[in-house]
Amino acid sequence: LAPGGDPAYAPDVLSNSWGSNNGLDTEFSADIAALRAAGIVVLFANGNTGPRAGTVGSPASLPGAFGVGATDSDDDVAYFSSRGPSPFGPVRPDISAPGVGVLSTFPGGSYATANGTSMATPHVAGVAALLLSANPALTAVSVTRALTGTAVPLSTTLPNNDSGWGRVDAWNAVLSVISTGVITGRVLDGAQPIS
After folding, report:
1. In sequence order, what are the residues at sequence separation of 6 or more whose Cβ sits closer than 8 angstroms to the Cβ of residue 133?
2. What is the C-alpha to C-alpha distance for residues 66 and 37, in angstroms, rounded to an integer?
3. Residue 1 and residue 69: Cα distance in Å, rounded?
4. Which of 18, 39, 60, 191 would you label with 83, given CA atoms 20 to 30 Å apart?
């Protein structure tokens, strides 16, 4: 909330790839409430103990949390992706994202592919950051509404305890928060542009 004691350095988005398999654990309820009150978009990996119902872990299971499930390249819910409902009632996950065979950095400067809702959650965090970049006036609530409102449905029942509102859709999410114009930018390696 105040890195180095200064709230000006608080993040806009938190991607959390940690948790407990115990969906009833309320250890972080007050923390989630404080982060949300500060206007921070707080995302949690749903867990990897699927495919049974009610396997969502904490803190993704907690009221006020925004849980992320995993999908594969065919837009099927990953077999391991933890499912809802939360023991507190809400549908979980809220949304899903690619989480099977995701290329990632590994210790020692290498790359490898990995599976998990911890691989899916950063995709959603990236889209949330993109939304805030496209429209800095968005609140945390409006960011999560844009994410869920533009998701690609993976079921005829929405939301549902397998994929939530569906798979995140960056393009349509951004289009939903800008009124006109174009989005431009540069990708840099240090100070040097990457073509």
Report:
1. none
2. 14
3. 26
4. 39
Our measurement of the distance from residue 127's CA atom to the centroid of its chain's CA atoms, rounded to an integer in Å, reads 8
pTM comes to 0.90
- How confident is the model over 141-185, as pLDDT tens digits? 999 999 999 999 999 999 999 999 999 999 999 999 998 767 677
Which conformational region is residue 27 in: left (phi greater than 0), alpha (psi within -120 to 50 degrees), or beta? Answer: alpha
CA separation, residue 39 to residues 36, 43, 126, 144 (Å)? 5, 13, 17, 12
Please state, in angstroms and rounded to a whole number, the distance separating the CA atoms of residues 151 and 127: 11
Q: Quick one: tokens of 78? A: 């990953």
12: Cβ–Cβ under 8 A, 6 or more apart, which residues? 40, 41, 128, 129, 132
Confidence of residue 187 (pLDDT cuts 50, 70, 90): confident
* Residue type for position 129: A
Mean pLDDT (the chain, rounded)? 95
Those residues with Cβ within 8 angstroms of residue 92's Cβ, 6 or more apart along the chain or in another chain: 46, 56, 60, 61, 67, 69, 82, 83, 84, 85, 86, 161, 164
Higher-pLDDT residue of 85 and 189 is: 85
